[in-house]
Design goal:
4 helices, single chain, mainly alpha, 74 residues
Amino acid sequence: MRISPTTDGEKHCWHLEKLAGADIVYTCPPKFIGELLLEGNHIEFRDQIDEPPPDGVMEKLMKIPYFAKGYDEK
């Protein structure tokens, strides 16, 4: 886990932001929590787990065999 590079003038934590609202628990390393507190205090967490990915992302991911296998519901 890490804080992302600056995007549009802000830092993000996609690992946490995009999974907000999911029924999961993260165990985070202390160093990461420290970085998040220092660099991510502007982040507004809201349910994003059900938002679709940007156009083309799933198409690219499905070309990766282990991703496609893990994503398959069967």
